[in-house]
Amino acid sequence: MLDRLNQTLEYIESRLDRDIDPAELARRAATSEYHLRRMFSALAGMPLSEYVRRRRLTVAGAEVLAGDASLLEIAVRYGYGSGEAFARAFRAMHGVGPGEARCTGTELVSQARLTFRLTVEGSSSMRYRVVDRTAFTVVGPKARVPLVHSGPNRAIVDFVRGIDPRLVERLAKLSDQEPQGIVAVCDDLDPSRAEGTELDYYHGVVTAEPAPEGTATLSVPAGTWAVFTVSGPAPQAIQELWRDAFTEWFPSNPYRSRPGPEILRVTMAPGGAEADAELWLPVEREQGRAAVFAD
Fold first, then answer.
1. What pLDDT, in 10s, does the model give residues 33-57?
2. pLDDT in tens, 99-138
3. What distance in Å separates the CA atoms of residue 246 and residue 284, rounded to the nearest whole number?
4. Which of 26, 50, 186, 294 could make an SS bond with 33 (beta carbons 3.0 to 4.6 A apart)?
C-alpha cells in the first residue's frame, strides 16, 4: 500500500502544471477515491487537495522569483483562472503577493515533497472486530458543526452541553442495538476533510424505536464495520485510536474505508481521567490484497 501511495505522489509531481483527476489518483493507488482521501489525510496530516495546492504554489513561487515568465503565465500554468485568484492563493501561502515577491526577492514558504515510509516503533497491537450489520437507525439531537482535527471541538462541546439532560436520559433507555448506549455520530463529512469544513453531528442512540420529539433520525444502510476498542487516558487514548486505525490498521489489513457515518461510544471511568472507547468505522474488503506485505 505504501509503495502505491508513493507512486501516486510521483504522479502528482509530474502533473503539477496540469489537471489532476482524483479518480486517476485512486486508480494508481489501487483503492477508492474516498479511501485515498481518508488515508492521505491521516498519514500526511493534511487533505490531499491541500497538499496538491501547496506543492503547486511552491513550484510556482520558484518561477515567480526566477522572472522568466509573466505572473499571468505562471497563474494559468498552475490552474488559476485569473491573476487575482493566483495572487490571493499565493499570498495565503507565502504571506506576500507574487508581484512583491518578484520585486523584492523576499523569503517564500516551501511545501516539501512527501514520501511515505514504514517505521517500526514497537510491538503495539490494536483490538478490533469486523461486523456485518443490517440497516439501522440513529436517533438524537443533530447539529451542523465544523471539523476540528486536534483539540476539543467547541461547537460539539457547546451543543452537547445545551441538550436537556432529561432527553439524554430518555434516549439512553431507547438504546436496543449495538453500539449500546449514548453515541457520538459524525456523518456527511466533506470529502476533503479539510479543517473547518462542516459535518452532521448526532448525539443519540441506535434504536428501532420512534424518534422522540425534538430529535433527528439518521438511516444507516446495511454494511460492514470495523469496530476498534481502547481503554486509557481521556481524551488522548480516544484521539490516538482514530489515528491508529488509519495509519496502522488499514495499511496492514485487506480493508478500505467506505462512505458512511463514524460512530464513537465512550464510557468515562469515575473521576473522568480514564475512558473505555469503541469506534465504529464503515469498511469494505479490498479484493486481491491480503496485507501490506503482499504489496
1. 999 998 888 888 888 999 999 999 9
2. 999 998 788 999 999 988 765 554 456 889 999 999 999 9
3. 14
4. 26
Q: What is the 3-state secondary structure (H, E, C) of the chain?
A: CHHHHHHHHHHHHHCCCCCCCHHHHHHHCCCCHHHHHHHHHHHHCCCHHHHHHHHHHHHHHHHHHHCCCCHHHHHHHCCCCCHHHHHHHHHHHHCCCHHHHHHHCCCCCCCCCCCCCCCCCCCCCCEEEEEEECCEEEEECEEEEECCCCCCCHHHHHHHHCCCHHHHHHHHHHCCCCCCCCEEEEECCCCCCCCCCEEEEEEEEECCCCCCCCCEEEEECCEEEEEEEEEEECCHHHHHHHHHHHHHHHHHCCEEECCCCEEEEEEECCCCCEEEEEEEEEEEECCCCCCHHHC
pLDDT at 290 (0 to 100): 44
Of the candidates 51, 100, 107, the residue with the CA atom closest to the CA atom of residue 71: 100
Distance CA 267, CA 231 (A): 9
d(CA 85, CA 149): 27
User: How far does Cα 88 stand from its chain's mean position?
Assistant: 26
Grid cell of 133 as nine digits = 450489520
C-alpha cell at 75: 497563474
Whether 182 shows a pLDDT value over 70: the answer reads yes
Cell numbers linked to 6: 508513493
Phi-psi region of 221 (alpha: psi -120 to 50; beta: other; left: phi over 0): beta
pLDDT for 125? 67
Note whether 49 and 192 are within 8 A (CB). yes
**Cα–Cα distance, 200 to 202 (Å, whole number):** 7
The Cα–Cα gap between 211 and 217 comes to: 7
**What is the length of the chain?**
295
Residue with cell 446495511: 222
Contact 143, 214 (CB under 8 A): no
List, for residues 264-286, the tens digit of each pLDDT value.
999 988 887 888 999 999 999 98
